[in-house]
Design brief:
214 residues, alpha/beta, 6-stranded mixed beta sheet, 4 helices, 28% strand
């Protein structure tokens, strides 16, 4: 289920098949990366909304998807989104889900009022959930997906054990940790996540960019 996915670093992923190339939160993409048909941004922080990567990957026909505050800063064919919506962009069907902090000490990082998002993307007959930056918000228990890409680094988002609690509630067919080993969180967090998420299957991807935090 991950054959067409590339993890660059942090929360930056690419889906590429014979029909289209889709990036989510591109950051750290190499200069030779193929241009985007669709770019989806989850929220406004620099490690998710990197204008340099967006400009590098964009062509005149690239479709952009982003929360309203980010969309206002973009030019071109932009679809502004908020949690709880369904859209079809360039043949890509997606739904948006909330992404926000619930821990008292973290409320200012990703406030619910900002209406930032995660995405559930319909790709190759399966649903892929990219959580963005979030804690285990109660609404997320209802998210249904085949693959769940979830942050585990802690501090700004769920930590590994908290993220495991989310996937145990969601029960995807496969869970994939992200948002660790770079700005926050260390490489061993992935093993902690995998153990805590059992019996949900976990696959740990190798990023294109070398890990920075061990």
């Amino acid at each position: 289920m991950l054959e067409r996915l590339t993890w660059f670093k942090q929360a930056a992923f690419r889906w590429q098949d014979d029909e289209r190339t889709i990036y989510i939160d591109p950051w750290g993409t190499p200069d030779e990366a193929p241009p985007a048909d669709v770019i989806a941004i989850t929220h406004a922080h620099h490690d998710h909304f990197c204008i340099e990567d967006i400009e590098k990957l964009s062509t005149p026909s690239t479709k952009l998807i982003a929360p309203h505050d980010v969309a206002a800063e973009l030019r071109g064919d932009v679809t502004a989104v908020a949690p709880g919506e369904s859209h079809e962009v360039e043949g890509l069907r997606l739904t948006t889900v909330p992404a926000y902090n619930t821990r008292e000490e973290a409320l200012d990082f990703h406030p619910r009022a900002n209406r930032w998002v995660g995405y559930v993307l319909e790709l190759d007959g399966r649903d892929y959930y990219h959580a963005g930056d979030t804690d285990h918000a109660p609404e997320l228990d209802e998210v249904k997906s085949d693959v769940a890409l979830v942050p585990i680094g802690g501090h700004f988002t769920m930590n590994a054990v908290e993220a495991a609690g989310l996937v145990l509630a969601m029960r995807p067919r496969l869970a994939v940790p992200m948002h660790y080993g770079f700005v926050i969180g260390a490489v061993p967090d992935a093993e902690t996540f995998a153990k805590a998420a059992d019996p949900v299957p976990v696959e740990v991807m190798t990023p294109v960019r070398p890990f920075e935090r061990f």
